């Protein structure tokens, strides 16, 4: 059973930074593709960024390019999302997700609130 636990959310002011972590237990972490998603109030969930099992390829949504960075540490079984220059429109619940082909496994989410 693969379990994902996010941490690191919180409230920051515009321009601030946060680092989200996603600790993964169970499964073969080094084979999982991983991604960060977010859902703002009243909006559909959207993918923010994905990373391949090797970390060799990433794909960011345009709105976060140049501000967010995803990384993974296969030895620590953890995926990170470094968020810089945060904006109020980044306010959302952020979810970590993983899977071998599709995003089968999901964390419980962590709230990120950016105040203006």
Topology:
Blueprint: E1 3-7, E2 10-13, E3 18-25, E4 33-39, E5 46-51, E6 58-60, E7 68-73, E8 78-83, E9 92-99, E10 105-106, E11 110-115
Parallel strand pairs: 2-11
Antiparallel strand pairs: 1-3, 3-8, 4-5, 4-9, 5-6, 7-8, 9-10, 9-11
Molecular structure report:
By secondary structure, the protein is mainly β. It has no helices and eleven strands. A hairpin with a 6-residue loop joins β4 and β5.
Q: Secondary-structure element order, as H and E?
A: EEEEEEEEEEE
Helix/strand class:
mainly beta
- The percentage helix is under 10%
Kindly provide the radius of gyration, computed on alpha-carbon positions and rounded to a whole number of angstroms. 13 Å
The major beta sheet can be summarized as: 7 strands, mixed
Mean pLDDT over the full residue set: 95
- Total number of beta strands: 11
Q: Can you tell me the overall shape?
A: globular
- Poorly predicted runs are none
Compute the separation of the termini in Å: 40 Å
Number of helices: 0
Beta-sheet strand percentage? Answer: over 45%
Key features?
116 residues, mainly beta, seven-stranded mixed β-sheet
Task: Describe what is shown at a glance.
This protein is mostly beta strands and 116 residues long. 0% of the residues lie in helices and 53% in strands.
């Amino acid at each position: 059973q693969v379990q994902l636990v996010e941490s690191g959310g919180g409230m920051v002011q515009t321009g601030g930074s946060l680092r989200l972590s996603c600790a993964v237990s169970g499964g073969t972490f080094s084979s999982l593709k991983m991604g960060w998603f977010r859902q703002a109030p009243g909006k559909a969930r959207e993918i923010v960024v994905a990373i391949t099992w090797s970390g060799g390829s990433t794909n960011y949504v345009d709105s976060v390019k140049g501000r967010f960075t995803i990384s993974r540490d296969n030895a620590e079984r953890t995926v990170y999302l470094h968020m810089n220059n945060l904006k109020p429109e980044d306010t959302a619940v952020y979810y970590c997700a993983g899977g071998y082909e599709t995003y089968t496994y999901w964390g419980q989410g962590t709230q990120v609130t950016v105040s203006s």
